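Here comes my example:
=====
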Amino acid sequence: MANLNLVLVEPEIPQNTGNVARTCAVTGASLHLVKPMGFEIDDKKLKRAGLDYWDKLDIFYYEGLNDFLEKTKGENLYFFSTKATVVHSDIIYPKRCFLVFGKETAGLPKKLIENNPENSVRIPMKDELRCLNLSNSVAIGAYEVLRQWGYPDLTNHPTIRY
């Protein structure tokens, strides 16, 4: 059984986390939040961005990056960073994996990327621009994994709504 886990390390902007929570809800991915966060989990902006999907999520909390790394030792972790050299779509993702994203202003620690070059990936973008929005990056990564897995348990036929 496939198990996708989306990880936000020290997220700062509640709307981004809310958007990622919504992505988790509609894809069946689990959400992992690594403290400290730049907002309270009951922040109105966070709730509004996630709409009414909060009760449909599996959410896990960690006291810090070391706590997360310790509790996920032996798991398949993929670190998304503009400093990585491997393109995210060049990886073949195993049926259980964690996509790890850093905070909006700084990304993941440089040492983490340097120590894990084979599991550090980037989303291609123009060199002169800093980065994509965090929630967009998470969605790009999540849907690449789900595409490779054949979109398990998701409706992949067009639905017309008027």
